[in-house]
UniProtKB/TrEMBL annotation:
Organism from which the protein derives: Tsukamurella soli
Domain Histone deacetylase: 16-315
CDD domains for the chain: HDAC_AcuC_like (cd09994)
Gene3D superfamilies: Histone deacetylase domain
Protein name according to UniProt: Acetoin utilization protein AcuC
Amino acid sequence: MVWDPEVLEYRFSPSHPMDPVRLELTVALARLLGVLDGVELVRPSGFGDHELRRVHSDDYVDAVRLAGRVGPVRAVEVPVLAAYGLGNDDNPVFAHIHEAAASIVASSLAGAQAIASGSATRAVNIAGGMHHAMRAHASGFCIYNDAAIAISWLLDNGFDRVAYIDVDAHHGDGVQAAFWNDPRVLTVSLHEDPRWLWPGTGFPSELGGPEARGTAVNVPVPANCPDRLWLRAFHAVVPSVVRAFRPQLIVSQCGCDSHATDPLTDLALSVDGQRAAILAMRALADEVCDGRWLSLGGGGYQVVDVVPRIWTHLIGATLGRDVAPTTPIPDEWFGVLDAYPKGRLPASEHVPTTMGDGQDATFTPWEPGVSDPGDKSTDAVADRFIARARSAVFPLHDLDPEDPRD
């Protein structure tokens, strides 16, 4: 596990939903459950700005540095920052924004380097997963795209086939854009219907550039999609295309804003369903690339009730210390919550007592068949989305979109 306390400085404002307290609470919960017993947490070192330029333009990195120097009050005096997506409601300027964002990149890169060196088979950076950042502008709470930078480094250091799997409720648009025309990288994103959720991209017809057709895979799911349909969609598309691509390593963005109580999205997953997805990605890494797996965080804005639990499951899965959903949350963790100053943590409608939501994470596998176009039920819409995704990309991998065995 890579952990640099500097990532806690990545805080846009006191009211911004991307609150680093979610990371602090996750580490506290993982420690109290014994998941980190005897584990030496890795702190990145030797990171340079040249790594940022693998994905980001020189002028953008300079703009982020400038934003951090002028700070939030004077940012309005520098209109050029707006052209780089800096200083708006999503991406407010804060002091030392460059250093805080770069620390997240350094952490993901340290995980990639540990796997490449052979010192680890799996690595996790819960602060990572800033998948919306583009080459020359900030986007969706993301300043630097740590996932894309780590993948770029891997491509230059012994890997020539990397699969990226994104299970955040929002489309992984920045990573897709970074490798749009690169046949060495498969980007797979499972996300809420882009007709209704920002950033409005991630349709099945988005398949990659002319030299990399089929390496962009998009699987939208309908609003209010529960565990059983989300997992059906995942298993109907993701394992097949990843197996066909034959990657040497899997990078996963494990945003947990698909939870039913997340304030920014409209999906209906439970912690149990999200945990099942994490274990499925680990199993896929074990099957196709000798276990090599770099797992990252991402979105997730129910910062007390959900994020600490699901990312503790992510840490446990990465370290081979799986946590059962029925595991009680230690009383000491609630003491950690009580120790925060009044008003620092958002009010919670339901503070959980166990590491799961008590939901059944089983699903019925997808079967071919055309549902009545007039059927607007979530089940029918989900199955039509699955069929469209398979029809769009499966033939490009010599897979049969109508054969459920593929």
